[in-house]
Amino acid sequence: MKPVPVTTPFHCLRAMTLQETHLEINLKALAHNYSVLRSRLQPQTSFLAVVKAFSYGHEAAVVAQKLEALGVNYFGVAYAPEGSNLRHHDIQTPILLLHPLPGHFESIVAHRLEPSLYSLDLITQLITYLEQRNIEDFPVHLKFNSGLNRLGLSLKDIPDVLERLAQTKSVRVVSVFSHLAASEDPKEDAFSRNQINRFEAFYEGVTLGLNHKPFRHILNTSGIFNYPEAQYNMVRSGIGLYGYGNDTQFDALLQPVARLITIITQIHHLDPGASVGYNRGHQTNQAMTTATLAIGHADGISRLYGQGKGWVLIHGQKAPIVGNVCMDMIMVDVTNIPCQNGDQAIVLGPELPASSLAESAGTISYELLTSLSQRIKRVVIDS
Prior knowledge:
Layout (H helix, E strand, L loop, with lengths): L21 E5 H13 L6 E5 L1 H6 L2 H11 L3 E4 L2 H9 L6 E3 L7 H6 L2 E5 L2 H13 L5 E6 L14 H9 L4 E7 L11 H20 L6 E3 L3 H6 L7 E4 L10 H4 L6 E13 L4 E2 L5 E2 L4 E6 L17 E4 L2 E6 L7 E4 L10 E5 L5 H7 L4 H6 L6 E5 L2
């Protein structure tokens, strides 16, 4: 495996003060989170690290290289180009492709990606593609719809699935899996347990018709914490690796991997009756000092966070967003915060978790993190 280049924009010392918006990616925190999640598992349980969507807005190749060195057993991506990118960065670990598309079959085969087969139609299309090219024993995973109703085979599909598999040598079923819909919600415990029971029935039905027993997995991050008895042969974790456990008690065990930092570019001293931003989104009723920051909705800080719903930290103090978020800038209230041009503002990080900021705007950490624009410089810290 090639090392990550120790050059900007991917590596900088913490002491370096960048005069631009940047996202610090702390690989030490990533390793900590992996260790915490691993500690919840039996020694023989495998671990799939979900690195789709640029590793939840982080940096997929860098994150995957670190996790591969730590010993993860599988990676999970949504679409074939994400898996191809990992292979181009010398990732050798098996990659489960969660949402394969027929138009990507060539890339799937070329880059040794292992597709999730979630419908009879997809199974037929893939088998036809492989047989036309005389490809045998290609690794695939059967996805069961246990109640999320997004993707997946049903119990009634089992006979047809087994018939099609029996008629070909082109594929080999590596695993059978499903996805919990509400594993973080105690009020949905009965629903989650019913999903697990339905999954076990599907697995039993499938394996009765195969000449081997594939491994199985259903737990996501919250499932690891809340349903350890269903860890089976492997678990899958995405958001937990990046520092969020969907519950305050689990968040306390984890460390946010990303810290988003921007800078003050101008300060305005406003009189009562002044307005701030597009559509006069805020009008002052008393004297106010605002700071303009070099980040906006093009960077992933949605307009949802405007009108005081979101905030940043400047010198450790809370500075609410004033008015509407602009494409490339936000304005924040620094009336009682001594600061100047060039000072840094923390948009999210250990001091201001993405979960807290997202909740203030009625959304979730997943959306905030995965919305972070690729134009933001990534700075990797591994010490």
